[in-house]
Amino acid sequence: MTVLPTRFAPMPDSPAQPDSLYDVLRARSSRLPVTWLLLAANALVFILMLNAGAGLWHSQNGVQLAWGANFGPATQDGQWWRLGSALFLHFGLLHIAMNLWALWDGGHLVERIYGHLRFAAIYFFSGLFGNLLSLVVQGNHAVSGGASGAIFGVYGALLIFLWRERRALHPAEFRWLFRAGIAFTLASIGLGLLIPGIDNSAHIGGLLAGILLGNLLGRPLLGKTPWPPRQRLAGGLLLAGTVVVLLTHIPPPSYRWRDEVAAQAEIQQFLDQENRIQASWQEIIRQDRRTADAVQALAERIEQEISEPYEASFEQLSELNLSPTSPSAAQVEALRAYSEKRRDSAQALARQLRARGQFGPFNQPRLGPPFSTPENIPPI
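Given the sequence above, the corresponding structure tokens read:
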């Protein structure tokens, strides 16, 4: 978008033309520490996520959530830091490649235009504002992440600067940069409307925040005359007021995130214990039970190693306080019923063994279902 000619030189005998924006900015600052730092941070997080199990071309929502993606129930459950951490998460190689290219393309101009600290403020606040708008629009229905909102803020700040300083720029240079910026912005938002899975609300929010922040923090390209202070103040107040409105209009979460996390941990604990119970059952089947004492010992093992663990699982699953809309609610209820049935069957088998063991030392009760052929556990 921002590839510049080396210089817009005037024709012979024509009026003097302004210096190229690129020349002016290069003279102002040759270093881009914030842009390079942001590029490196996004790339590093992507590599670390790949090492943690994320997919090269697409990452599952579970991985993104674990690394801090923006999601209504989680963000509103005291994890507001997700509005910021989501700026460094990407869902695949194509996603991050496009964002890094766009960040460099806009960042190498905007950082020089506004300065390092102001550029960083535009980037991060635009990203936070975009993620906040996404939270209001998407609510409980989307897991979002990516630097796009912040990058749209960078382009918004570039567009407002170009428009305000259009008389200080070479006309051809202004037309090229401004039209290219508008085309890039509209094309990106248009793709977001056509392609499912693109968080256009974060894009639009970042763009609006970038325009208002650019208007607030901008300074003239040449000379010392500041932009009209009343317009800048009005833009700043509008941005602050919009933040307040968004914060008061976030839709309530459909369930509590901490309860869902606790349920998932309990489900995993149940599966681990189920494996131990099945191993114990195989040992019980092989146990010698030719005497009455052996049969009594067998009944004791069934109670201790089968019935009691299922009773503990039943109680722990029953203590979970899940909303019916929680993703794990149906699974928890199925496992609770499963544990109850297994507990009751084990207790009945232990009583049966004790009753049969009283009739003689060589009475060998048959150990059959329900444990020799375990029922299927509901899918997790």
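Residues 1-14, 360-380 have pLDDT under 50 and may be disordered. Try to locate this feature in the token string yourself.
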